[in-house]
Specification:
By secondary structure, this protein is mainly alpha-helical. The chain has three helices and no strands. The protein starts with a helix and ends in a 16-residue tail after the last helix. The chain is rod-shaped.
Length: about 90
């Protein structure tokens, strides 16, 4: 993904140089319009994904806190040694 972003960044730098020289001519170009449409779609999809990502993060945080709490409970539990836990019965 990083490689693709780097490649897109390179293309954007080239495009910016060309666009700043002739911005009015480029705005009507079909490739520029397609690029704009694709960027708008990416932004829209990102906005749709954000609530899902936040929900997943909340669930993960809750599960981690439950695990952490369970670890505290288990660490507080001490099992008695059976050799010291014999009942003493009187003869009689």
């Amino acid at each position: 993904m990083h490689e693709l972003q780097d490649e897109a960044s390179l293309h954007d730098r080239i495009f910016q140089r060309l666009f700043t020289r002739n911005s009015e001519e480029w705005k009507d170009h079909p490739l520029f319009q397609e690029r704009t449409r694709l960027l708008e779609k990416i932004v829209e999809l990102n906005h749709l994904l954000l609530p899902k990502i936040r929900g997943m993060m909340a669930v993960t945080a809750h599960e981690l806190s439950q695990i952490k709490g369970g670890r505290v409970v288990v660490s507080g539990y001490h099992q008695t040694d059976p050799k010291y836990n014999k009942s003493i019965r009187g003869v009689g």
